[in-house]
Amino acid sequence: MTRNPSRRPRLAAPIAATFSAFTALAACAVFAAATLLPTSSALAQDASSATEKVLRIGYQKAGLLAVLKVQGSLEQKLKPLGYSVKWFEFPAGPQLLEALNAHSIDFGYTGSPPPVFAQAAGVGFVYVGAEPGGRHTEAVIVKPGSPLQTVADLKGKRVALQKGSSSNFLLLEALQKAGLRYEDIHPVYLAPADARAAFENGDVDAWVIWDPYYAAAQEALKARTLADYTNLDTAYSFYEATRDFAQQHPDVIGAVLGQLRSTGRWVTQHPEETAALIAPKVGLDQKLVETWVRRYPYGTTAVTDEIVHSQQGVADAFYGAHLIPQKITVRDNVWQNQQVAVSLAAK
Q1: What sign results for the dihedral spanned by CA atoms 273, 193, 91, 181?
Q2: CATH code for the domain defined by 135-227
Q3: Signal peptide position in this chain (predicted)?
C-alpha cells in the first residue's frame, strides 16, 4: 500500500500491531496468574464467596445489552440460576474482544468484523448468537459543506474509522461498489471519540461510524451521508463468549440469549419507551436515542449455517484487503449447542 510519507503520523500502526494488543493482554494475564500467590485472607474470601456466581458482560451504548442493563431484566432472569451480573462498557468491539481475550469479561456484543480480527489473532472465543444487520445504523459521512459527493470521491482522501469495527466492513463494501480498492484511500484509525474530534477539526475528510455516534453527528454536526448499507449486503452483529464459559455454562448462555430475544421484541414495539428508558443512562438526548433505536432491526437468533456463510464472506473480504494476516474459517469458532438453537427458534 503506497501512502504519502508526510501523512504517516496520522495513519495506523502496521497490521502486526493490531494483533500484538491481544498477545500483550494474554501475556499479562498469564504472568499475573503465575506470579500472584493467594494470601490466607484471599483464600478465606474465596471460600466465603464460593457460592457467588457472576456473569461479566461487555456492552456498548447501542444494542440490546444496553437495554437489558437499564431494565434489570437479565438479573431477574439469571437469579434462579444463582448468577448476578456485572456490566462493563466499551467504546467499540475491538476493545471489548481484547477484554474477552484477557478473561476480564465472559460475554459481549460486537459487529461482524471484531470477531474476525480476534479469530485471526488467536483469541479464545465462540460465536453464541447473532442479530440481523441494519441498513441505516452506520455510514460514511462528511461535513455538510464538503466537496465530496460520492464514495468514489474518497480516492486519496483521509478517512477516519475504528480498525476492525463494523464500520471497517462497510467501508470495504462501499469502496468496492465504487470501483476503489482499500489502498486507494488513506485510513486514519481512531476510536470514536478521537475520530469525531478529527472530523470536526478537519483533520480527516470523512468518517465511517455507527450509531449512536452516527446519529449524534447527524444531529450536532449536520453530517451528510455518502453511503450506508443501502444497495449493499449487510453483515450480522454477534454475541460472543469465552469458549470455556460457553462450554461450561450453556444454561446461562441460553438464558441470556432468550432474554435478548424477548427484549428485542419489546423494543421493536416500544421505541419511544425504550428511548426514554435509556437516554438518561447513556447521556444522550431522548429524540436522538429514539432515532437509532428505530434504525436497528432486532431478532436474536442462533448462529445458523446461513449466518456462518455471511460471516465467512466478511472474513474473506478482510483477508483479501490484507487487513488480517491469514485466512480463517469462521465455523471453527461457532458454538455448537443444538438445545439452545432449538429453544431460540421456538420462541
Answers
A1: positive
A2: 3.40.190.10
A3: 1-26
Distance (Å, whole) CA 216 – CA 226: 16
DSSP lists the bridge partners of residue 242 as 125
| Domain boundaries defined on the chain | 16-133+236-346, 135-227
Task: Give this prediction's pTM.
Answer: 0.81
Classify domain 16-133+236-346 at the CATH class level: alpha beta
Q: What is the pLDDT of residue 19?
A: 44
CA distances from 278 to 64, 147, 263, 272 (A): 11, 37, 13, 10
Task: Compute CA distances 109 → 63, 98, 169, 178, 253, whole Å.
Answer: 8, 12, 17, 30, 13
- In this prediction, residue 283 has a pLDDT band, given cuts at 50, 70 and 90, of confident
CB atoms within 10 A of CB 123: 24
Contact 226, 142 (CB under 8 A): yes
Nearest to 123 by CA among 174, 71, 164: 164
